[in-house]
Amino acid sequence: MVPGQVPQPAFYIFKCEQSSPPGMPKPSCVNPQTQDLFQYLAQSLMQKGIIGTVQPIRTSCMNRCNMGPVMLVEPGHVMYTGLTKEKIDRIIAEHIVGGNVVSEYVIPAQMWGEPITPADMAKQMGR
Ligand code: FES
């Protein structure tokens, strides 16, 4: 690290904070049972003293609503699904601190295929 420089975060954690309006049949990541997960995540990072290098971010729908609550860890495009406080504890300990993805909580590959580059997408669209 260069002295005097503010280091960039090592990780960004994008937590879906979308909630459906009451009565809406579509599932969403935030409901009365799951509404405190973002706060739990942020507080856990704070308590461990790593909030400066792990940036939690509230985001809107990431189009995997059926598998919610979800959060995306970058770098790595690692999408975690079906979150609970216990899962968040393990993800912080094993992935964020320990460097090992918690594969049993990762979204199934058929729901999270390889990314398509914008250049390839443009080609597919004939542009
Ligand atoms: S509501 Fe969270 S992914 Fe859609």
For the record, give the distance between the C-alpha atoms at the N and C termini, rounded to a whole number: 43 Å
Helical residues, percent: 10-25%
What structural class do you assign from the helix and strand content?
alpha+beta
Give helix and strand order, one letter per element, not per position.
EHEEEHH
β-strand amount: 5-15%
CATH class: Alpha Beta
The average pLDDT value, as a whole number, equals 94
Whole-number tally of structural domains: 1
DSSP strand tally: 4
Question: Given the structure, what is the number of helices?
Answer: 3
**Oligomeric state of the chains in view:** single chain
Q: Name the CATH architecture.
A: 3-Layer(aba) Sandwich
Describe the main β-sheet briefly. 4 strands, mixed
Report the uncertain regions: none
- State the shape: globular
The CATH superfamily is known as Glutaredoxin
Radius of gyration: 16 Å
Cross-sheet strand order for the largest sheet? 2-1-3-4
Tell me briefly what this model is.
By secondary structure, the protein is an alpha+beta fold. Helix content is 24%, strand content 15%. FE2/S2 (inorganic) cluster is lined by residues 16, 18, 28-29, 61-65, 68, 70.
Characteristics:
single chain, alpha+beta, about 130 residues, 3 helices, 4-stranded mixed β-sheet, binds FE2/S2 (inorganic) cluster, Glutaredoxin
